[in-house]
């Protein structure tokens, strides 16, 4: 079923039948409270995919003005725009086998990367009022995550996550031009990672349209993070890839927790919610695996792949080693890094395991 058209129908139905007394009131804030709805006492939130009024739960855009948040191109000659990077197909067993993992810091540069990630994580959790529960710990009501809070968190994090791959790819591209040397394939993988993170963002934006406050936060974060990462990558690309590897460890943790909350019945609006069409097409989701839960498994698998790729790239000689993810190996019988997740190594491939 085409979830986009279904939701569009639901929206037009809602606009014509909604009682005038219902007042939608959206608070855009990254501090956790994403949406508050006020209405008459008998007003209830609808949760089936057909009447899912919170498709954009952090929106205050007047509904009659909405058609599609980012619709296909309006050009009679164009049907759809193709992507240059087809996503590798993941099997159900593969996406379910992803685990939270941590690569121990082994030298001072690893500690710099890990310390920076921990500082960012602490700062963001503090600003947004987020608390990660310890095993067996029950959080107070204030720290309970709702569907809206998760979406707000995903949108912000994905808007930041798309930066490092683009900066790394851009700087390696410029270095290749400047030094008149081959790059040995790294640029494609880095740009593909940035593209993949942007697809995560676009997917979640089909479920939640950010307001002005969120947009301001994204703008500020991008301005600071892009420039900071740009300078850091000029100084030490190796530490930067380790930093992204640790950042992706946190991303896997975040999506794992969201999946657990969904499976434990704490996110009822997502129980039967279908994945947006953009996700179905991008991940080539099988017909019986197109729910919000399945989507979270796919996104988490991508984050696990970024975790592996960046830890691996950090283990290599940045100037001379070829990109092991775009390499034809002399001995195909041996396990090697690949674009998919069939040989996923949570803590990355060591240099000697690839090239010796
Ligand atoms: Fe992502
Ligand atoms: Fe990622």
From TrEMBL:
Predominant location: mitochondrion
Record's keyword terms, sorted: Electron transport, Iron, Membrane, Metal-binding, Mitochondrion, Mitochondrion inner membrane, Oxidoreductase, Respiratory chain, Transit peptide, Transmembrane, Transmembrane helix, Transport
Enzyme nomenclature, EC number: 1.-.-.-
Origin superkingdom: Eukaryota
Any one GO MF annotation of this record: metal ion binding
Subcellular location: Mitochondrion inner membrane
GO biological process, one term: alternative respiration
Pfam family, one: AOX
UniProt xrefs under InterPro entries: AOX, AOX_sf
UniProt keyword Ribosomal protein, yes or no: no
Transmembrane segments annotated in the record for this chain: 150-171, 212-235
Positions bound to Fe cation 2: 197, 248, 303, 306
Family recorded in the similarity comment: Belongs to the alternative oxidase family.
Protein name: Alternative oxidase
């Amino acid at each position: 079923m085409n979830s986009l058209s279904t939701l569009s129908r639901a929206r037009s139905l809602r606009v014509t039948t909604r009682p005038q007394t219902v007042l939608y009131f959206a608070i855009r804030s990254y501090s956790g409270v994403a949406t508050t709805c006020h209405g008459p006492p008998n007003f209830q939130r609808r949760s089936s995919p057909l009447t899912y009024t919170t498709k954009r739960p952090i929106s205050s855009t007047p509904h009659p003005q909405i058609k599609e948040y980012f619709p296909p191109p309006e050009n009679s000659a164009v049907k759809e725009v193709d992507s240059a990077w087809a996503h590798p197909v993941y099997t159900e067993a593969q996406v379910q086998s992803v685990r939270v993992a941590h690569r121990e810091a082994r030298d001072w540069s690893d500690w710099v990367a890990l310390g920076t990630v921990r500082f960012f994580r602490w700062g963001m959790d503090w600003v947004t009022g987020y608390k990660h529960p310890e095993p067996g710990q029950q959080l107070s009501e204030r720290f309970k995550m709702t569907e809206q809070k998760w979406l707000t968190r995903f949108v912000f994090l994905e808007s930041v996550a798309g930066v490092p791959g683009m900066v790394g790819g851009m700087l390696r591209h410029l270095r290749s031009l400047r030094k008149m040397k081959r790059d040995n394939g790294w640029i494609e993988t880095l740009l593909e990672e940035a593209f993949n993170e942007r697809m995560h963002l676009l997917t979640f934006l089909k479920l939640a349209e950010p307001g002005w406050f969120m947009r301001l936060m994204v703008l500020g974060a991008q301005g600071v993070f892009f420039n900071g990462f740009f300078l850091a990558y000029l100084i030490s690309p190796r530490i930067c890839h380790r930093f992204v590897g640790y950042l992706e460890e946190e991303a896997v943790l975040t999506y794992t927790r969201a999946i657990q909350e969904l499976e434990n019945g704490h996110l009822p609006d997502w129980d039967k919610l279908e994945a947006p069409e953009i996700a179905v097409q991008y991940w080539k989701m099988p017909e019986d695996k197109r729910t919000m839960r399945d989507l979270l498994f796919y996104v988490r698998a991508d984050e696990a792949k970024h975790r592996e790729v960046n830890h691996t790239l950090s283990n290599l000689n940045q100037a001379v080693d070829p990109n092991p993810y775009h390499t034809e190996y002399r001995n195909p019988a041996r396990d090697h890094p690949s674009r998919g997740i069939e040989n996923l190594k949570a803590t990355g491939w060591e240099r000697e395991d690839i090239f010796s």
